[in-house]
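Feature request, filed as a ticket because there's no other form

It would be nice if the structure record came with a short human-readable summary line next to the tokens. Right now we just get the raw output. Example of a typical job, pasted below so the devs can see what we mean:
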Amino acid sequence: MSTWLNNAWYVAGWDSEVDSAPLARTICGVPMVFYRKLDRSVVAMRDACPHRLLPLSMGLREGDSIRCKYHGLKLGPDGVAEEMPLRTDTVNRKVCAETYAVAERHRFVWVWIGEQDKADPALIPDLWPCSTPGWTFDGGYYPIACDYRLMIDNLMDLTHETYVHSGSIGQPELMEAPINTRVEGDQVFVTRWMPGVDAPPFWAGALKQAGPVDRWQICQFLLPSAVLIDVGVAPVGAGASLESHDQGVRGMVVDFMTPESEGTMHYFWGMARNFEIGDAGFTARFKAQQGGVFAEDREILEAQQRAIAANPDLRLAAYQIDEGGVRARQIIARAIKAQQQEAQA
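Raw output as currently delivered:
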């Protein structure tokens, strides 16, 4: 039994990653190839030629079609054969590669895993800060050698910032502020309010104002494998609260964990922000800085995955700080079980 949910949209890549050249990426155990047609729309196809299974990502683009580099079988963007290896042969349109529903939204290319007739773009998460005037958004990508759920655990428990990210966004108050965890349907929220604290270096620079601040972190888990983190600071006395906090500087950290295999994942990260939105240089510098923070997470999580494999007789423990991740795992497990029961009915 797989550890991920089928019949769901997963991020396959940033819009900038997918171009006319074929891009190979395994999503939820399925090798896929992605490319753009001449009209710039995206094709997602099984990355295996139906003839001898050579990856189509090694193939040659011809217009909107792709030709296998082994014997020259040519497939259209619908996956159906357009030309046989022997061009004198009649085209057998029963020869085809599987294709997948795709959509572009919020700077991401999304692919639907599971039953293709259920692929409804309305089910793509509403990442409003990524597409709203007054905000700007950018980010990056890391392949990470760990179970995607370990990253969900990591993001739903930000106390690790004190130690893993001590030089950038961490501060001791993270270990002292009370944590509230709640479940709303298929979503989990972990909130932390830190009133009257010194702003860590990044937020002090963003606020451009001295003095104590009120700081917040609101982690939100979304099926099948996303975590959004509403973060920011406001000057003490500005009136900010957990419920309303546009008085200072605010960001929305966007994290999508797309399973590759049971022990590897694609991590798409970024942050939308409502400050310095017209400064392209700041965006580039911040992207590099954020990439450095998440590289610290990658080092920890890959070491954790190796330790899990090396200690098969041990199990992960869960303390109070882990409640958000535990609740998220429970929701994933319930959703997988429900899909399986529906398929068997």
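Something like this underneath would help us a lot:
The chain has a mean pLDDT of 93.
The chain is about 20% helix and 35% strand.
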